[in-house]
Design brief:
Blueprint: E1 4-13, E2 16-26, E3 31-35, H1 42-50, E4 57-62, E5 65-66, H2 72-77, E6 80-83, H3 95-104, H4 109-113, H5 115-131, H6 147-159, E7 165-169, H7 177-187, E8 195-199, H8 203-209, E9 212-217, E10 220-226, H9 227-231, H10 234-242
Parallel strand pairs: 3-8, 3-9, 6-7, 7-8
Antiparallel strand pairs: 1-2, 1-4, 4-5, 9-10
Helix pairs in contact: 3-5, 3-6
The structure holds adenosine-5'-triphosphate and magnesium ion (MG).
Length: 244
């Protein structure tokens, strides 16, 4: 069974059917790209998976459990992690403290005051700083980082709770081509521990890192398949040449 099964999910905002009968299946340790024109429902789908809002119909199964109606915090505890389209680091805290806080969200306070737990948390923060090329910026305020480095910090924060599935909404938005390429390099190693659902407008970037793509259009799945299958899909080409 897949790690994540989205079946027939719908979401309505007023008169607008933002998602309409969406099916998506994501296997463990794979990178799954979600693409489609503006307003096609990509962010709405990520939020329904993470529990930022509830699907109106359909079911979402994660790691064998039905999470359709579960609170976001309970989904996070089961191994789901979401980085939103908008940056959410705490700008007045250091890079180190942002990472430390994202572990603490997971632990009872009594565990943190014990030195052993603090030592382990420190090691995890140092490891994340190294992996995301932030080691020399550990003591700087997060708000002083460039936009690209803030995105990396946020991805590192989303991984601190060791999720089984990471959801990223346009992590390379506003990045330079060089920063985008580096983001791909930083993401690839996480595949050993985690699956990824990633929304991106940069098709070259997403084709490079993803195993599988789902294309949304006006709240429905237009097509779904390997990168090669989607590249060869006449339906997708039509939408991308006429509307994007
Ligand atoms: N909270 C909301 N209330 C009302 N309408 C919403 C809400 N969130 C999204 N929508 C609408 O639902 C549709 C899908 O939006 P969504 O943000 O999921 O698109 P998207 O594919 O992520 O687009 P983009 O590529 O621009 O980020 C849009 O028409 C949007 O205006
Ligand atoms: Mg969006």
């Amino acid at each position: 069974m897949a790690l994540l099964e989205v079946q027939g999910v719908g979401k309505t905002f007023g008169a607008l059917r933002a998602l309409d009968g969406v099916d998506v299946s994501v296997r463990a340790n794979t990178f799954h790209g979600l693409i489609g024109p503006n307003g096609s429902g990509k962010s709405t789908l990520l939020k329904a998976i993470a529990g930022a809002h509830l699907a109106d119909d359909g079911t979402i199964t994660f790691d064998g459990s039905d999470i359709t109606k579960m609170r976001a915090a309970d989904r996070a505890r089961r191994g789901l992690s979401l980085k939103f389209q908008i940056t959410a680091v705490l700008p007045e805290l250091s890079v180190y403290d942002n990472l430390l806080l994202s572990i603490q969200a997971d632990e009872p306070v009594w565990a943190l005051v014990r030195s052993r737990s603090r030592g382990e948390a420190h090691d995890r923060v140092m490891d994340a700083l190294e992996r995301f090329r932030l080691a020399d910026r550990a003591d700087d305020l997060a708000g002083e980082l460039s936009h690209g480095l803030q995105q990396w910090l946020e991805i590192a924060m989303a991984l601190m709770r060791r999720p089984k599935l990471l959801l990223l909404d346009e992590p390379t938005g506003g990045m330079s081509p060089e920063e985008r390429r580096a983001t791909g390099e930083l993401l690839m190693p996480i595949k050993a521990d985690c699956a990824l659902v990633i929304v991106e407008h940069d098709l070259d970037f997403i084709k490079d890192i993803c195993d599988h793509l789902t294309v949304l259009d006006q709240g429905r799945v237009l097509d779904d398949g390997t990168v090669a299958e989607i590249e060869a899909s006449p339906k997708v080409q039509e939408v991308y040449t006429t509307r994007v």
